[in-house]
Design goal:
By secondary structure, this protein is of the alpha/beta class. The protein has nine helices and 20 strands.
Length: 365
């Protein structure tokens, strides 16, 4: 409002491609605009047969309204949201059970990263069930009896709460299709690289415009929309969209993983540097984890970076810069990094991809 923006609180829907109706408890207002930007975000996915009730079965939003910590909780979903809550709650003394239907935690992430994270969470006391589903639950005497099932096994136990962290879905705005806006099968607004929808005056940004559901992606898309509305010609065309999981330890993934690069037909070099060889990680008593740099062999371009370790989210910016610019790995390796910092682990991994690492011993055959 201090920037001259008029704010109307209430529930909105499109009356036409240039008219928005806002309903509040006390009033209904119709607004006219030459251009409309839809940035309605996303909401947690509710699993079939497991409805949110805000008391026993919770969404990630409900978690922030708890007045006290439960003694125990089952988290359904081993993606970023589930792992962040599992890390935080276990460190606060909550007994956490974590169920993931896929074979590994963080499906789609580097398998080596997932393995490190699984081991760290187990040490925190989290009981992890992969390739497992929540098959049934019932409320008994103020808690829940839950049954989880996987290949050849089934287990029943009691918890105080269930958190469903099985993904998110776009929050759609009523009237979009009537205004000529085309949606995909998931309900996202289909946009071009200027963030414009099929209706020429309706733009979209953030979660409602498609995956990935990340705040920094939404910020960038919002800026691009604003610049294009101001008459510029700016495209959303990023090669690197950093994905950071604020778990314990943290995870950074930018660009292609080693497996993804090979599946895309690339011949790659892979450099790796363990945190146990980092002076900074050792002084902070956090030697678990590693940095992995994935390099296209012929061009020596950095195509991906995966990191797991304490406080590694601070390395996501440099990793993104390397992938976004298609940096030659020799440039990353030859750039002087300060010692002792976590940032030099990127330099060391780059050196390792070239077979020039000084601080990682490799046995000669």
């Amino acid at each position: 409002e201090r920037n001259g923006v008029k704010v109307f609180e209430g529930e909105a829907f499109l009356k036409s491609e240039k008219n928005v109706v806002v309903k509040s408890a006390s009033d209904t207002i119709e607004l006219f605009a030459e251009n409309i930007v839809v940035a309605t975000g996303s909401t947690p996915v509710q699993l079939p047969g497991v409805p949110f009730d805000g008391k026993f079965v919770l969404s990630s939003k409900d978690m922030f309204s708890l007045e006290s910590l439960p003694n125990s909780i089952l988290i359904v979903g081993g993606g970023a949201i589930g792992l962040e809550f599992a890390s935080a709650l276990s460190k606060l003394g909550v007994q956490v059970y974590l169920v993931e239907m896929m074979e590994q935690l963080l499906p789609g992430f580097d398998k080596d990263v997932a393995r490190i994270l699984s081991r760290a969470l187990s040490r925190l006391g989290v009981k992890i069930y992969t390739s497992t589903l929540l098959s049934n639950y019932r409320i008994l005497d103020g808690s829940l009896e839950v049954r989880v099932s996987g290949p050849g096994r089934e287990e029943t136990f009691r918890v105080e709460k269930v958190l469903v962290a099985a993904g998110r879905k776009p929050t759609t705005l009523s009237g979009l299709t009537e205004a000529g806006v085309v949606l995909d099968s998931k309900g996202h607004i289909i946009v071009d690289k200027m963030m414009k929808s099929s209706a020429p005056n309706i733009f979209a940004a953030g979660d409602v415009a498609g995956l990935p559901y990340l705040a920094h992606k939404a910020f960038k898309q919002g800026l691009i929309v604003a610049e294009n509305l101001a008459g510029k010609n700016v495209l959303y065309n990023f090669r690197a969209v950093p994905n950071v999981v604020f778990s314990e330890p943290e995870v950074v993934s930018v660009g292609l993983s080693e497996d993804e690069a090979r599946k895309n037909g690339l011949e790659v070099l892979v450099g790796r540097f363990p945190m146990q060889a980092s002076g900074r990680a050792l002084t902070e008593a956090s030697p678990e984890g590693f940095v992995k740099v994935v390099v296209e062999k012929n061009s020596l371009k950095v195509v991906g970076v995966q990191i797991v370790g304490a406080n590694v989210s601070e390395l996501a910016g440099e990793a993104s810069l390397a992938v976004e610019l298609g940096l030659n790995v020799r440039e990353l390796a030859s750039t002087m990094h300060p010692h002792p910092t976590l940032s030099e682990t990127l330099m060391e991994a780059a050196e390792d991809s070239l077979g020039e690492s000084v601080h990682v011993f490799k046995r000669r055959i």
